[in-house]
Input
Amino acid sequence: MKLELIGITKRFGSLVANDSIDLVVEPGQVHSLLGENGAGKSTLMNVLYGLYDPTEGEILVDDKPVTFKGPGDAMAAGIGMVHQHFMLVPVFTVAENVALGNEATKAGGMLDLQKTRTRIRQISDQYGFDVDPDAVVEDLPVGVQQRVEIIKALVRDAEVLILDEPTAVLTPKETDELLGIMGQLKADGKSIVFISHKLREVKAVSDVITVIRRGKVVGTADPDASTTELASLMVGRSVSLTLDKKPATPGEVTFRVRDLTVQAANGQRVVDGLSFEVAQGEILAIAGVQGNGQTELTEAIMGLQDHVTGSITLGGEELLGRSVKDVIRAGVGFVPEDRSVDGLVGTFSVADNLVLNRYDDDPFARGLSMSPAVIEKNAEEKIAEYDIRTQSASAAAGTLSGGNQQKVVMAREFSRPLELFIASQPTRGVDVGSIEFLHRRIVAERDGGTPVIIVSTELDEVLELADRIAVLYRGRLMGIVPGTASRDVLGLMMAGMAGDEALAQVHDVQGGNL
Amino acid sequence: MSPQDDRPASPATDGDAPLSRREAKEAARQDEVRRENAAETAGGELPPPAVPPTATGLGGGTSPESTLLQRIMTGNALVAFLSVVLSLVLGGLLIAITDEDVARASSYFFSRPQDTLAAAWTAASSAYIALFQGSVFNFQGETFARMIYPLTQTLTVATPLICAGLGVALAFRAGLFNIGAQGQILIGATFAGWVGFTLHLPAGIHLLLVILAGMVGGAIWAGIVGLLKARTGAHEVILTIMFNYIAVNLVLYFLSTPAFQRPGSTNPISPQLDATALYPPLLGAGFRLHWGFVVAVLATFFVAWLLNRSTVGFELRAIGANSSAARTAGINVSKGYILAMAIAGALAGLAGVAQVSGTEKVLTSGVAASFGFDAITVALLGRSTPWGTFAAGILFGAFRAGGVTMQASTGTSIDIVLVVQSLIVLFIAAPPLVRALFRLPAPGASRAGKGGSTTRTPASTGAAA
Output
């Protein structure tokens, strides 16, 4: 099936999210849409999937113009979409989920899941999905859940599959498997629209790359183009992807974690007996697939978790059992992983958010009375220093782009002398241009002699920033390896192999090949 | 062996945390829906005189949007204004339809339609003129004092509405849906009343002590709710509704005890408060308006300062807007809940003082009338801002004061005022309806990004530009 978008424009009020975008997806082709967050990729796909009406332009399927009133129409026309956040009912089985909205029935309106099961097995065998139709979705790993989403589209005879940031939630290994599946689908004549901002994956799998910037197509690129070229096209200026970082000069060890255990409400140990330390002037990156205890670890340090045992000391003082405010006062800077939930109050102004944890300190407040003028002045300074793009200091923080929101959080945390800096997913959902800036600031903080902990699920980021890398798996430390460790080693550790074993195995394989 | 064997198990944990996070958000959303439902239940279950239909209006939609209530409570000023206009127009229609003259004229509508229309116009306009005369300015008054008397009546009725409305608004800004103003007024009035008729103190000190007692009473009553919520996670809507019942019955019980009951009476009524415990009249003995109104104005100034200029207000607003960000920033959310409820209760207690030592001068179980519930509407119409609440309080005071005159002079039932009040809430709770009727542009038309968790897609491009 050939899919063509001609002159698609989508306006929201005065904002132009898509500006006369042309796109042709040939059968049997993987077409990547590359662009920063907020470039308009998702809007375009939502137009294609019938979720938005285009303001202008038309969609052609096999050279015939079509209009989609909703996802139903798009599905009927052979377009399937796998959303970034899965649209699955967790307590239903795979078959039930696949049948949902398209249920086969027997006489008397009885549900006939047998047909669906057969279809699922058929598709699963054809592409090697290894999905059991009777498994309950919530018991399945994320990677398999994603395949269920793909099956959902295939059962409805999708010829064009839209994958919206599909690798964001996967381990490196699962990502490789997904890329393999995409290859098979392509070989089978299906077309795939692959949306991503991860250059490495896009390069690995695409036939054509279309780069979108600020709602416009700024060009197409060859998969052979270098990552730097692609990045520059995406951002609109040349960017340096590699960080200029001096080797660390670790000083005194001031931050120590001993036998830290965090219990979840269900009694499960989400952080299980962690011990590590961080020296002044070094960056310890905590790697791992999302949900292996990283969130709980950082929150335990901040005093945001209950049921924590063990010991956390900073400069010899015990932090465990202290209030969040005390921990902040002790000089711990914290960038939470979900800035819109934990880092910012979206309806508050940028100025207020810049003092969110210092609003009652001199000079921002005298006694009970706050000093708006001082807060305003502080905001003007930080906006200039961190190049925060906002209409004004009084604009609501929620209206800023992801990168600028993150700059607000970082600016706030760096605006006081720190004894320890912790950043969770410091660049998630942040545009390439801002990533560069934020990374430099973090390294600068390290060079200033602060112990730094970075939690990231993105290997690229971990490898770029870390002086040492600790890998968490199911709340346990798989080992701490030098920042120069290879992706393979980290991949094995993220899947649950102890650090030295992983090192040995990768060494063996390489040795064997030589 | 190779780690591949481990595969299916390994990412199983991947699912866990994001799921639980998602669940948390889901729970928050359900919480919101529950909150709305609770408000609806409040409308259905409470005794009719105490509950204006307004509480039902609050339950309006069943949209799963977690911010629905927030949007309603802090909505657009223009929408609020238009809702009032629209409600008055509809109220007028209702008056016309139920009017006897109109009914008579409509029997020959097809031969002389102008009669029906003229009768309808007369019915509606005379009712509203009477309402205006009864609440703002009486043209027929012989002296200037008689002319402005209605306005002073309006302000008198507005006084408890403003105080209690401020309490509801403040609690809401801290993210607490305080339905309990009614109970807080009652308990405040009980404390104040007891000090007023039991202690015999010199003028000045006595009144101050009465005011203080009223505030403390309300603060304790509401503070318990805050404490229970902070400690046990109990929901404030349920708690405050139940505390309203407890308060009513507690006051009834007190009024049957010798400490409270008027000597020689078997009715549940307290002795008259000492003259030293009463708010002095503000404009002389000819008017009912008392110094309680000045206290209400001062309270409005105080709440405006507290919310917008003080560190406490910053904390409360942060908790209300995003409690997890507030917690991460080191703000003590539990303390915030307790404090917000206590201050809200103190303000409602002031309303109780206005009643017991301003207008009623005795304590009965009906001393709070339905002010506690009207206060929710007032805060709603005032978009939870201090001065908006003040203005809405005066408007509702006018409805109440003028409704009496309207009923007396035109025979239009005072219930029509309740209908108008309820319609206002209905329209405020459904901004898209008002916008559609007046063809206003929808705000945030671009509000359709990726699901709202991060920023909107198009906006970020704009801001990054």
Summary: The two ends of chain B are 52 Å apart (CA to CA). Chain B touches chain A through 57 residues (CB under 8 Å). The mean pLDDT of chain B is 80.
